[in-house]
Design goal:
Blueprint: E1 8-9, E2 12-13, H1 15-20, E3 28-29, E4 32-33, E5 35-36, H2 47-60, H3 70-89, E6 98-101, H4 104-119, E7 125-129, H5 138-147, E8 150-154, H6 164-170, E9 175-181, H7 193-202, E10 207-210, H8 222-225, E11 229-233, E12 244-248, H9 250-255, E13 266-270, E14 273-276, H10 290-306, H11 308-327, E15 332-335, E16 344-349, H12 354-362, E17 366-367, E18 369-371, H13 376-382, E19 387-391, H14 398-415
Parallel strand pairs: 5-17, 7-8, 7-9, 9-10, 10-11
Antiparallel strand pairs: 1-2, 3-4, 6-12, 11-12, 13-14, 15-16, 16-19, 18-19
The chain binds pyridoxal-5'-phosphate.
């Protein structure tokens, strides 16, 4: 199930071999070869993931955990096997710490509701940053409303980096939780999460990291990061949609109440009360997304086969190239210029609405995203309603970045 080993040549990726794994990339859109540069919204799946899901449905599907028959046991093995793969991939200490969710959004809501409703009270503070995706803002706003707690926001500077000095100042005696993105989807900023965790730990404050944009692009080791929660989504890391992961430190998850009730999350039910299941199933009520988990396990195998450091190196050189060619487009301004960014370029073209840019480059077969990227406060900071965003994965090429730059020159001509 892993990527072709020949794809890894002298610690560099053989792009053509890798691209051959992704059937969707080999098509024409509007008469041009597709250039898919919308990976931060959702990445594409290699045939290894598609085959794993198809094989599961063709051969192994039944409901998990409750059956003694062979198919149910096979489905359970595949489902729990995928959990073990994810645990290894992010170096969690135990499978008990890997909770399946629908994605990052659900994982953060789980923590906000289960941990938050238990631990937050009037006047307590949840400290986030200006750089968050709405998925790491709104669940905290909801639980703040429910408990009387307050959301406190660390400001950022004009390169799109959080102000660590301000963070340290805002981390006060009332802070009960720190929640921040590992990598910004809107700007590509890689946040100084080690410093943040160290500061929070020094004050005994737990930390949740939103890893949706980090896990697909760099090696993540949750024990090394020393965070308490880490959330991410399958569809951004070349796996299926509708599946994601909450990593939770076992000691934290153990004392948290379930957030949804139903089948599978119980050991015994009577009308007098219910005994909840052990970790991680206590947090997995109802029939789970079994095929999604199996597909995510295959995605992890695939990424392991290529090597996360090869992916990170490849994307760093793609980003450098794309930044250079886009900066040559007259009137183009890159929004988010932090050093050491992930391969995301948000930009505006003077006098042209981002939606027009997105529509016109689509005619050239180039898929980019335009809008607020579920990060409206970031747009507000930079005084723009929206940006155009090109986001790269290891299967993208320099030539695709060049095509985008050329298409943007055409956009300018059309609006001249
Ligand atoms: N956090 C970040 C940084 C994201 O980029 C996204 C999706 O774009 C999310 C959270 C939400 O992920 P999902 O929609 O898969 O739950």
């Amino acid at each position: 199930m892993s990527a072709n080993p020949e794809a890894v040549l002298n610690a560099e990726l053989d792009i053509e071999t890798v691209r051959a794994d992704f059937p969707i990339l080999h098509q024409e859109v509007n008469g041009r070869t597709l250039a898919y540069l919308d990976n931060a919204a959702s990445a594409q799946r290699p045939r290894q993931v598609i085959d794993a899901v198809s094989h599961y449905y063709s051969s192994d599907h039944a409901n998990v955990h409750r059956g003694v028959h062979t198919l149910s046991q096979r489905a359970t093995d595949a489902f729990e096997g995928a959990r073990a793969k994810v645990r290894r991939f992010i170096n969690a200490g135990s499978d008990k710490e890997i909770v399946w969710t629908r994605g990052t959004t659900e994982a953060i809501n789980l923590v906000a509701q289960s941990w938050g409703r238990t631990h937050l009270g009037e006047g307590d503070e949840v400290l986030i940053t200006w750089l968050e995706h709405h998925a790491n803002i709104v669940p905290w706003q909801i639980v703040c409303e429910q408990t009387g707690a307050r959301l406190v926001v660390t400001p950022m500077d004009d390169t799109g980096q959080i102000r660590l000095d301000e963070f340290e100042r805002l981390l006060g005696p009332k802070t009960r939780m720190v929640a921040l993105g590992h990598v910004s989807n809107a700007l590509g900023t890689v946040n100084p999460v080690r410093d943040v965790v160290a500061m929070a730990k020094a004050r005994d404050v737990p930390v949740l990291l939103d890893g949706a944009q980090a896990v697909p692009h760099m090696a993540v080791d949750v024990q090394d990061l020393d965070c308490d929660f880490y959330a991410f989504s399958g569809h951004k890391m070349f796996g299926p949609t509708g599946i994601g992961v909450l990593y939770g430190r076992e000691s934290m998850l153990a004392e948290m109440p379930p957030w949804q009730g139903g089948g599978d999350m119980i050991l015994a039910v009577s009308f007098d009360g219910t005994v909840y299941n052990e970790l991680p199933w206590k947090f997995e009520a109802g029939t789970p997304n079994i095929a999604g988990a199996v597909g995510l396990g295959a995605a992890v195998d695939y990424l392991d086969g290529i090597g996360m450091s090869n992916i990170a190196n490849r994307e760093a050189s793609l980003l450098a190239h794309a930044t250079r060619v886009l900066e040559e487009v007259p009137g183009l301004r890159i929004i988010g210029t932090a050093p050491g960014k992930a391969a995301v370029i948000s930009f505006i073209l003077e006098g042209i609405h981002p939606h027009d840019i997105g529509t016109i480059v689509d005619h050239e077969g180039i898929a980019i995203r335009t809008g607020h990227h579920c990060a409206m406060p970031i747009m507000e900071h930079f005084g723009v309603p929206a940006t155009a965003r090109a986001s790269f994965a290891f299967y993208n090429t320099e030539e695709e970045a060049d095509r985008l730059a050329q298409a943007l020159l055409k956009v300018r001509e059309m609006f001249a």
